[in-house]
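Ops channel
N.P.: pipeline sanity check, posting one input/output pair.
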């Protein structure tokens, strides 16, 4: 796998080559532009952050803080990849069109043993005031987190152990959707998984499941996220891709 994946697009980016690269703190503004415009299209976003339109300042503040920690090298269990224009050497600016967050805990488990525990930035966000944010429904956030952990244990850990590259977040800015950018970020992870001899795992929204199915991900079932006693719920689909099942990445 060569360093940067490039593709040509006939977009408002004046047909500039776009590249998949590791995000830095200089990309934070561009990442937020993607996240705050793309992620609300996913029903799970409104489920967890139903008051975001009333309190947009809290949504921006704590999502920005979350990604600051994700990008911080001290949170080495996560890797943020962006797809956009190369940086301008003078201004250090880049147009970011799509974002992916990968859980790469398998690297530290290989180094430190299977009992190594992932260092997750959610705790740091809470310590910085996240427990009092006004845009969120905390019961829904807890249900989402618990359902995700249970699904990972049921569908992925028994099959792959810790040898899995988990796709945590994937989003493409609405202005650049349906142009293969999400697929490019996924294929980066699929190539990484092949190189590191691991599987790719994820929990897909119904909207995202179509993309992953087109990339030969296996649909393993259905996970319903719901607080006991409530009618409101969201559905997630655990999906995986094991490079060992294919001769090449699609």
């Amino acid at each position: 796998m060569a360093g940067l994946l490039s593709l040509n697009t006939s977009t408002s980016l004046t047909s500039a080559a776009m590249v998949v690269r590791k995000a830095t703190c200089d990309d934070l503004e561009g990442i937020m532009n993607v996240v705050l415009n793309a992620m609300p299209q996913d029903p799970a976003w409104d489920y967890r952050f139903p008051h975001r339109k009333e309190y947009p300042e809290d949504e921006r503040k704590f999502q920005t803080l979350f990604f600051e920690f994700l990008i911080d090298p001290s949170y080495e269990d996560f890797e943020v990849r962006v797809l956009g224009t190369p940086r301008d050497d003078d201004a250090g600016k880049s147009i970011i069109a799509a974002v992916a967050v990968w859980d790469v805990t398998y690297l530290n488990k290989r180094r430190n043993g299977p009992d190594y525990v992932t260092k997750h930035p959610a705790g740091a966000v809470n310590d910085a005031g996240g427990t009092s944010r006004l845009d969120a429904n905390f019961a829904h956030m807890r249900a989402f987190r618990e359902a995700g952990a249970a699904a990972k244990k049921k569908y992925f850990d028994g099959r792959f152990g810790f040898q899995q590259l988990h796709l945590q977040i994937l989003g493409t800015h609405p202005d650049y959707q349906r142009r293969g950018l999400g697929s490019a970020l996924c294929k980066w992870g699929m190539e990484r998984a092949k190189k590191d001899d691991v599987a790719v795992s994820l929990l897909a929204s119904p909207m995202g499941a179509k993309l992953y199915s087109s990339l030969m991900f296996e649909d393993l079932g259905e996970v319903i996220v719901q607080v006991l006693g409530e009618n409101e719920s969201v559905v997630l689909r655990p999906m995986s891709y094991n490079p060992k099942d294919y001769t090449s990445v699609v």
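N.P.: looks fine end to end. Confidence is low (pLDDT under 50) at residues 1-16.
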